[in-house]
Amino acid sequence: MSDRPTGFSSARNRRFLPAADPGALAPGEIVLRDATRSFDVRADPARTLKGALLNRRRAGLARVPALQGVTLSIAPGETVGMVGRNGAGKTSTLRVLAGIVPLHSGQAGCGGRVVSLLELAAGFSRDFSGRENIYLQGALYGLRKADVEQRIDRMIAFSELGEFVDMPVKTYSSGMFVRLGFSIAAHLDADVLLIDEVLAVGDEAFQRKCLRRISAQIAAGSTVVLVSHDAGAIERVCERVVVLDAGRVVFDGPTADGLLFYHRLLGTDHGGGESVRGPAAIDQRPVQVHDVQLRDGAGRTATVFRSGAPLRIVAGLRSRQGRTEARLALELRSGDGISLFATETEVALDADGAAAIAFDIPALAVLGGDYDLVISAGDLRMADRTLRFSVVSESTATGVVDLGGAWRLLTAVEAST
């Protein structure tokens, strides 16, 4: 464990200092007392006469409150989910606990080593490779080089970046960033783990793996504070929920009650588990996609690819009603949901009503970024599986499609014809 001092931070000092009254905090203990913080959202004044005059007129604008007297006490080993509307103060609370943002009044403190995963690229050097950034992050958390070397193979394996870990992180997509960032944070010996909505970027399989890793750290005694809009993740990880609204704690209690309170606050009493098509709709369909894998040119399972590299999509089908054939639909979407490519085919099922089928892409003609693959045994509007994968940005081109073109200077003869 780190020899970082434990205790409280105040508005005058962003370090965690021994509290004068209650004494040092136990490892994993978190305390907020009447924590207040506000922000000035005005941009820097323009360096013109007009800007100076306008800025003078706006001098009386009130600051925007982020935290208004927040008081919380979290015991070592507790798992707490923090939910609320956008702007409710969730991220500000974590930044205060991480020592990033000072308070204007009140006290805040965490006992022991605090590991925070608040922003994807926080603390990364964009010109360094992923491997070099692992050493950099380890040093920032007080680890010696030997300590990092004991963990680095596990970090890289967890991230699933493979050979791309030795590429500059400025070529990474947001999905690759979250893989690397979480892999580092998840393999540090944390007394307190602060996580802010970053898991939403990863694909479904990686999110499940992250949740399993968080569960392992909980079992090892870490205190976890998780900010997420995913009610399912909160339910799986947290035993307690804190609901923030307009910078104040409006509920603090058991997870089930807390999520119900939050949904009622939003006017959605049924929460996020409702489906437009009903929870059993897929199970009632005659044919289902039960397994999907993405493989690289060497046949290995992968989630990160190079532009122009081969990609194989392998899907397993099964029928519950003894059907002999099925229609499989596949669609590729950009990270913001725009359809880039769609195709479908008829598949013959064997005597057991099952089949395995592959779709081979000889050269992945897309530029760097995150992409979603949607697969359904029938209608894509009722998808069976959605997978997210990343493509490394190795080109100066922008957009989505990789045309594979190249610039060439023409000779005088070529230019005249």
Q: Beta-strand level of the residues, as a percent range?
A: 25-35%
Taking the alpha carbons of the first and last residues, their distance comes to: 73 Å
**Bulk shape:** globular
Mean pLDDT: 80
SSE ordering: EEEHEEHEEHHHEHEHEEHEEEEEEEEH
Largest sheet, spatial ordering of strands: 7-8-9-5-10-11
CATH architecture of the domain at 287-392: Sandwich
CATH superfamily of the domain at 287-392: Macroglobulin (MG2) domain
Poorly predicted runs: 1-23, 269-282
CATH topology tier name of the domain at 287-392: Immunoglobulin-like
Q: Report Rg.
A: 25 Å
Structural class: alpha/beta
Strand segment tally: 19
The CATH class of the domain at 287-392: Mainly Beta
Would you write up a description of this structure?
This protein is of the alpha/beta class. The chain has a domain at 287-392: Immunoglobulin-like, CATH 2.60.40. The chain contains nine helices and 19 strands. It has a six-stranded mixed sheet, with helices on both faces. A hairpin with a 4-residue loop joins strand 15 and strand 16 (339-348). Helix 3 crosses helix 4, helix 4 (145-159) crosses helix 5 (174-186) and helix 5 (174-186) packs parallel to helix 6. It is globular.
Structural features:
417 residues; alpha/beta; Immunoglobulin-like; 6-stranded mixed sheet
What is the fold's blueprint, element by element?
Blueprint: E1 8-10, E2 13-17, E3 30-39, H1 49-57, E4 64-74, E5 79-84, H2 90-97, E6 105-110, E7 114-117, H3 130-140, H4 145-159, H5 174-186, E8 192-196, H6 204-219, E9 223-227, H7 231-237, E10 240-245, E11 248-254, H8 255-266, E12 287-295, E13 304-306, E14 311-319, E15 325-334, E16 339-348, E17 354-361, E18 369-376, E19 385-392, H9 412-416
Parallel strand pairs: 5-9, 5-10, 7-8, 8-9, 13-19
Antiparallel strand pairs: 1-2, 3-4, 3-6, 10-11, 12-14, 14-17, 15-16, 15-18, 18-19
Helix pairs in contact: 3-4, 4-5, 5-6
